[in-house]
Specification:
Radius of gyration: 21 Å
CATH architecture: Up-down Bundle
Helix content: over 70%
Oligomer: single chain
């Protein structure tokens, strides 16, 4: 049984979450899509960690701890890493806006402004690319938990996988929004090559996790 103190502790995040959602829904430029994508990816990593904690250390699943224990440890690391990208994305956005506000009243000022916009835009691709990379790793860890995790909670591995896929795609959009202003075709090409790798089988893996989870819990869709 959960006592009221436990419930209150668990619900302490409520006001902070409401405040964040209020800010996200406001007309303020930040937080925006970049931080929302990072939070989605962090949620996914946290769900993988939750499945891990309900698996690792339990006798019924001890034979799989060589797979699940490292996955749990990595998921914990990813939660922290993804959380840090929330503020990194917001700082990068502020830098881009600062570059656009630079004076342009002379040819030299316009040249410097274009240069500043290009560099700030390049730097602004870094946080969402980091989120996409880490979210892609979350999908791999979700596969581990779907395969070896406690069957009572492996549906959360599927939720984690799809949340991570959404974060990958959202982050890639944020990368591409900034790539156009970098005026650096070589950098853009390198980013697009990595994007292709990140997207190559993420959706398929998430679909495979769905099928694996449903198989492990013995679910069969009703047929007419």
């Amino acid at each position: 049984m959960t006592n009221s103190g436990d419930r209150n502790a668990r619900n302490d995040h409520g006001p902070a979450l409401r405040a964040y959602l209020h800010d996200l829904a406001s007309s303020a430029p930040v937080p925006g899509g970049g931080s929302a994508a990072a939070i989605s990816a962090a949620h996914a990593a946290a769900l993988v960690a939750m499945v891990g904690r309900l698996t690792v250390g339990r006798d019924a699943f001890s034979e799989f701890e060589n797979e699940t224990a490292p996955a749990l440890a990595e998921a914990d690391d990813l939660v922290g890493a993804l959380h840090s990208q929330i503020t990194a994305d917001e700082a990068a956005f502020d830098a881009v806006m600062g570059a656009y506000r630079q004076p342009r009243d002379t040819p030299e000022a316009r040249r410097l402004r274009r240069q500043a916009i290009g560099e700030a835009s390049r730097l602004a691709t870094i946080p969402p690319m980091e989120v996409a990379r880490r979210a892609r790793r979350v999908v791999d860890l979700a596969v581990v938990m779907a395969r070896y995790g406690n069957p009572m909670v492996i549906s959360d591995a599927a939720v984690a996988a799809w949340s991570a896929v959404a974060a990958i795609r959202a982050s890639i959009m944020n990368v591409r929004v900034n790539l156009g202003a970098t005026n650096d075709p070589h950098y853009s090409s390198a980013c697009e090559s990595e994007i292709a790798n990140l997207l190559s089988n993420a959706d398929q893996l998430a679909s495979d996790i769905d099928a694996l989870v449903l198989s492990r819990i013995g679910y069969a869709a009703a047929t007419a």
